[in-house]
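Why predict the complex rather than its parts? Because the way molecules touch one another can change local conformation, and only a joint prediction can capture that. The input here totals 577 residues.
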Amino acid sequence: MSVSTVARPRAGLVGRVPALAVLEYQLVLYRRTWRAGVFSSFLLPVLTMVGFGVGVGAYVESGVGGVPYLDFIVPGLIASTALQVAVGESTWPVLSSFEWVKSYVAQAASPLRVGDILGGHVAFVLFRVLTSSLAFLLVAALFGTLHSPWALAVPPLVLLIGLAVTTPVFAYSSWVSSDNYLSLLFRFAVIPMSLFAGVFFPVESLPVGLRWLAYVSPLWHGVDLCRAATLGTAPDWSAPGHLLYLGAWAVGGWLLARLRFRRRLVI
Amino acid sequence: MANDGVLIRARGLVKRFGDFVAVNGIDVDVRAGEAFGFLGPNGAGKSSTMRMIGCVSPPSGGELRILGMDPRRDGPAIRARLGVCPQLDNLDPELTVRENLTTYARYFGIPRRVARERAAELLEFVQLTERANSRVEPLSGGMKRRLTIARALVNEPDIVLLDEPTTGLDPQARHLVWERLFRLKQQGVTLVLTTHYMDEAEQLCDRLVVMDGGRIVAEGSPRELIERYSTREVVELRFGGEEQESFAGKLTGIGERTEVLPDRILLYVADGDAAVTEVHARALTPASVLVRRSTLEDVFLHLTGRTLVD
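Output of the joint prediction:
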């Protein structure tokens, strides 16, 4: 066998962007379960439309700020779907990749760098966030709840929400050693955020002392942007401010996650 | 360029975890085409050394060159030319046997078509072609280990690192793995393995080092080590009753060294039959006598002691 100093030539896109190989692995895994996933991705929004539009909506006759209740909550639910999928895909799957299946350990033995391993898995989570949110958006459009061509901005927005949530959760999941801590994340972060970050009612309805809880959560910033997009109205807060705030979560989370991944894989 | 065919070169290599020194200044040269073994009890520092060679664990001190490159700087380029078979299988149980190979090949930037071809060849090599489309989860331990070895070969590596390749396998599975590894060796692949099975080291290794407490305590070919640290033959005597100790005194002077165990006495001698004759000449009548050749196990136990390490 010949011994040369140059690394073997790498072919194709995967050669130039090694993280894509990790994304590919995740997609091969996903191929086994996607059918069940697609069904629930559409079923959930349809049930929501019927339940809230016909059921709850009938009681909230005045709507919210002149907008029918269903149309008010749809963008919030899209943003919160992005949150749920992002957190779900960044908790158990990450811990398992370290502890149970150990796929990160296998990847670390290959030429992949820590950033490639992290980036490829994050890309897969974003793919899941995007497809789930698109399903919701499609159903929302069929029910006539989108009021503006700005609704086209929703897909890139959910990607940003996904990124802002995924990277810090990757950091958290790579920090903990047991999945008990992952349940805590749902109980103390995901559920309160989904309930109080402006998805079902305006944050102004909360007591003044509690509103800041909504304002610091990445979800509220995403909800406000999505709502402005589907209703064609101005957001409650500065749009660049929202984008920067979500961007800060994404970047901060990425740096922290990369640090944790390195600590755990390179020892 | 790695000169004089040395693919792995360590000088004063150290690995520390906080205050604990796992590897305490070892010198190693692994040459192209040889099968090199790290032997030692648990906690000797074998796996830490392997992880440093695998470029997933930065050395705490000393010098390490792999394929002429520096692991601190050229990790990905080195890893591109290594094949790693870890101690604990980390195959993906949800994927099929073939998918485990093809997805892994992609981490090396290998084009899909080439990955599929290579997966087919490697499955043939490790005799798993029939299971190509079955999921990994229900496979036996031996099959999983063979698949892990196949995966380690997917990038046609210059060096294959095997961390305890047959630990936990039944005898048939072990022999099959050995036979495959021997084939690789014949093809000129450089093998670096850790083991605490002496028969494995004798079967596979051209050269080996014995590690204990993070240091290298002996180095050489299996034959050299036996010659240097043991005698040509060993006589195992079992006396009836429980007091082997009381017979030990009467054996003084026979052979180079005597070792008293709870159930038997070992005489390390050059000529086993002559020693047995001498034993009988002293009017001793052991219940059983076994003359055997010295093995690496005798060397190993002599160098690292019989105390249990957990």
